[in-house]
Amino acid sequence: MNSMTGFGSCEIVREGVKLRVDVKSVNHKNLDIRIKGLSEEAALELMVKNAIAKGAKRGHFEVYVSLEGEAQTDLTFVPEAYAFYEKILREKGASHPAEVAWLLERPGVVKQSGDEAQAVDAALLTEAFERAFSDLSLMRQKEGANLKKVLEDHVATLENYVEKIKESAAEEKADERESFKRRVEEIMGEYEMDLPRFSTELALLYEKISIEEEIARLISHIDQFRVIMNDKGSVGRRLDFLLQEMFREANTIASKSRHMGILHDIVEVKTLIDHLREQVANIE
């Protein structure tokens, strides 16, 4: 189980060039990748995207690439450029030679080494990115392990509440027996000549007051939740789906039961499910 939150960074200085790669990720329902610093290097940008897609299934990823050359102080005088500007001044009718300082400030007359844009070396980028992404992946794994412990604790508490509800439901069923009997007699008096209608009403009445099936499904979902937590790969979506089903069963129990203990416990169950969904939102 991995978290979708992580950060990794790597800086390499080699042969007068400093390359830095930062990678961070946060939760997202799908895989979303944004890269800055490689807009002129489409092939390298695609390489980075493919590497992320191979190592992650979900999350919003941001990759920052910066490249710097060592500061250079070597200056080069370009006489051709100097002569070009001086010629323009003479053609425009300048009565005396232009100031030398002005001419030296014209673009291209004096060049500093390193002015040209540097291309990103593919091998260097690959090395830096792999290190940064490895750090990020390790952080996602550690955070995922922490999230798993939190989920296990919440699920254990949730299971305890469901067991309490199961016990209370058995008590409620016994308490409702007499009331149910009286209501059946009323239905029989009203529909004594229409047995099919009586059978239907009887079944609907029992279904209305019984929460045994909802409890059974809730317990089954909890068991399945534990199984999925221990699966490999991306499990976040499946866990979220199960929690939706748990919440639906909890709502049904709340609408059917009139037992105060059950109603109090089901509030706790729904609160725990909400907490679980908040945590699962960060799981890949």
- For the biggest β-sheet, the strand order reads 1-2-4-3
Helix content: 55-70%
Strand content: 5-15%
Global geometry: elongated
User: Spans with pLDDT under 50 lasting ≥5 residues?
Assistant: none
Could you explain how this protein is built, in words?
It is a single chain. By secondary structure, the protein is α+β, with helices and mostly antiparallel strands. Helix content is 62%, strand content 15%. The strands form two sheets. Strands 1-2-4-3 form a four-stranded mixed sheet. Strands 5-6 form a two-stranded antiparallel sheet. Helix 4 packs antiparallel against helix 6 and helix 6 packs antiparallel against helix 7. The mean pLDDT is 83.
Q: How would you briefly describe this protein structure?
A:
With 284 residues, this protein is of the alpha+beta class. 62% of the residues lie in helices and 15% in strands. It is built from eight helices and six strands; from the N terminus they run E-E-E-H-E-E-H-H-E-H-H-H-H-H.
Topology readout:
Elements lengths: L5 E9 L2 E10 L4 E6 L5 H14 L3 E11 L5 E3 L1 H13 L8 H5 L5 E3 L9 H69 L4 H15 L2 H18 L6 H21 L3 H21 L4
Parallel strand pairs: 3-4
Antiparallel strand pairs: 1-2, 2-4, 5-6
Helix pairs in contact: 1-4, 4-5, 4-6, 4-8, 6-7, 7-8
